Amino acid sequence: QVQLVESGGGSVQAGGSLKLSCVTSRSPANSRCMAWFRQAPGKEREGVAVLSVDSASSYYAASVRGRFTISKDNIKNTLYLQMNSLKPEDTGSYYCAEGKAWMCGLSTSEYNYWGQGTQVAVSP
């Protein structure tokens, strides 16, 4: 069983930045793809960004491309999401997830393990 623990959420004004962290109990962390998802109130969970095992490949949802950056520190077993130029529509619960393969897409069905989430609120 893999445990994922997110942190770093908070409340910011539009245009601000936050950096989310996700510590994984899997060691080494570089054995599965990892991703960030988010879920706004009343909406389905959607994929935000995914990173391949070797961190050489990444993919972003169109809504965050150019503003968010996903990265990983294998020594610290930690996945990050740097979020810049935040918008009110970025508000929601953010979850990290571990996938089933070397590189994954942004579908929830491709992921085995999920964290409990961290809240992000962006005000106008």
Secondary structure elements and pairings:
Layout: E1 4-7, E2 10-13, E3 18-24, E4 34-39, E5 46-51, E6 58-60, E7 68-73, E8 78-83, E9 92-99, E10 111-114, E11 118-123
Parallel strand pairs: 2-11
Antiparallel strand pairs: 1-3, 3-8, 4-5, 4-9, 5-6, 7-8, 9-10, 9-11
Summarize the structure.
By secondary structure, this protein is an all-beta fold.
Provide an overview of this structure.
- By secondary structure, this protein is mainly β.
- Helix content is 0%, strand content 48%.
- Strands 2, 4, 5, 6, 9, 10 and 11 form a seven-stranded mixed sheet that branches.
- A hairpin with a 6-residue loop joins strand 4 and strand 5 (46-51).
- The radius of gyration is 13 Å and the shape is globular.
- The mean pLDDT is 94.
**Radius of gyration, taken over Cα atoms and rounded to an integer in Å:** 13 Å
Major β-sheet annotation = 7 strands, mixed
* End-to-end distance: 40 Å
Average pLDDT works out at: 94
Sheet-strand content, in percent, reads over 45%
Structural class: mainly beta
Q: Give the total of beta strands.
A: 11
N-to-C SSE series? EEEEEEEEEEE
Question: What helical percentage do the residues reach?
Answer: under 10%
Poorly predicted parts: none
List keywords for this structure.
0% helix, mainly beta
